[in-house]
Amino acid sequence: MDDLVKILTQHAKKYPLMEPVDAVKLIFQNEFGGGHLITGKEAGLNRLQEEYRNIIQSDDITLHEDIGNGIARINLSALDAYGLTIKKLNDIFVASSSIIQGSKESFIKKLNTLEKLTREGLFKFDSHSLHAYLEVYISIGCPPVSHSKIYRDTYKPAYRVVCKNLMQE
Question: Is the pTM of this model over 0.90?
């Protein structure tokens, strides 16, 4: 859990406008990766191409952002600067989905860590907001979630979640 504490601390500083759903999404990806998005390799590539067309490329953004557990978010706006093709990223994304195997038990423990850190004041949101969110979220079975509107509008997230070790091949 020390790895998760470090990741949550880094993200709280880098993304101060995170809301409970954004922290839960981060933990979900840390546990389960991004495989829930895959409906097929070709469909995934088409979706990635569409998203890539709407992204402004930048030399100032790092290619990957560590989210712990051997997993990283690959920033689509950095692909050109690092010479990573959409096809290669999609291949890595699909391969990662078959490798990353999380468990609900571990995920719930990580949510407990999130609650503890929130009570300690790590995030801008308070423990009451998080508790209310988690109560509903857990009751509906802990599905994948999307970033909050404020997170999307402020930080413009565009990435794919992959196993870091596959990026080095």
Answer: yes
